[in-house]
Design goal:
Structural class: alpha+beta
Helix content: 40-55%
CATH architecture of the largest domain: Roll
Strand content: 15-25%
Shape: elongated
Largest sheet: 7 strands, mixed
CATH topology of the largest domain: Nuclear Transport Factor 2, Chain: A
Distance between the termini: 19 Å
Number of helices: 10
Number of strands: 9
Length: about 350
Amino acid sequence: MQQFVHCQQRRTADNNIIFWKRFVAELFAPNGKKSFCFSLYPRPKTRANLSLGSMKKCDICKKNPVNGYEACFDVLPRLLKVKYESGLLEERLFTDIPSEFRDPSGYIVLVCKKARRESLFDKFRVVHKGSIRIVFSPYIKICSWEFCVTHHEVFISRSHLVPNVNQIGDAISKFQNFAANNNVTAEEFQESSNKLVAVTQELAKKLEVPMLDDYSGFAKSYVRCLQLAEVGNLMKGVIDFSIRNKIGPIESLEKFPKKPRIGDHGEDQLQQQQQHQNGNHDLNNGGRNNGHTPGIQIGSSRNGTLATSSTVQIHNSVDSRVQNSVNGEENAQIQPPNSLP
């Protein structure tokens, strides 16, 4: 966790996407994801649901379905770039002592019941409080980073507001003097009133922080990027479903199965099993020898569907992707912070 935060502070001055691609490749597993859950927030009156449904369950608060966002491995570099383009200067993470255990699959799980994330901007900072749950692969790569947020607060810099507060004080004093003086003309009184109203409106405008999403406390551009990522994930699932079943796009949308996703690292575990099966023989033969149906591939958590493939071409594609992922993880352990530019 310390390296995750420290490496972000060492980002390049131009916020280059290449840096973020290297950052994600070094710290996240190929099917890694980062998610934010707001299910413990009071439900907004004007927004019944924040997400499109790609995040089915929160492993911290156990809410199902979840009000929140989820970003997969492919989207994370762009998401990090957008986060710092929105005016974010620095991000800090404070946690209590995490509890650590291994799940039945051998994955390392860290749970921080109390966590505080501070996002520092030029004239204000945003504090999100909640719990964090991180799942690491056997190669110490992040498979899942979940932040279940209970609430957030916005703190505006005092120096940003002091000039307006002083102007309001001066305007009120002048207004009171005019009110007590019978010799003041109507024009002078009106001018003083208008000045007081203008200064008050300017102060109110500074308190609004329009660049932030009112509900989540994230920058609006960051939230839009998360929403677009969810749309892409869902549309990819619909396209795959359409190709598999040889039906049109409209019919695919109508028949697309709304099934729950697999667990956090189900796909990663499946990839490792397939890698062992493909050590010395063909994928299809290996499937028959082990008593498994050769055409079944459990869908990834990126699109939240259960997929069934039946061609050798798809098997070969999965096999090569698994081989590259496992080889990459064996040769690319987490580098020290100075390995990033």
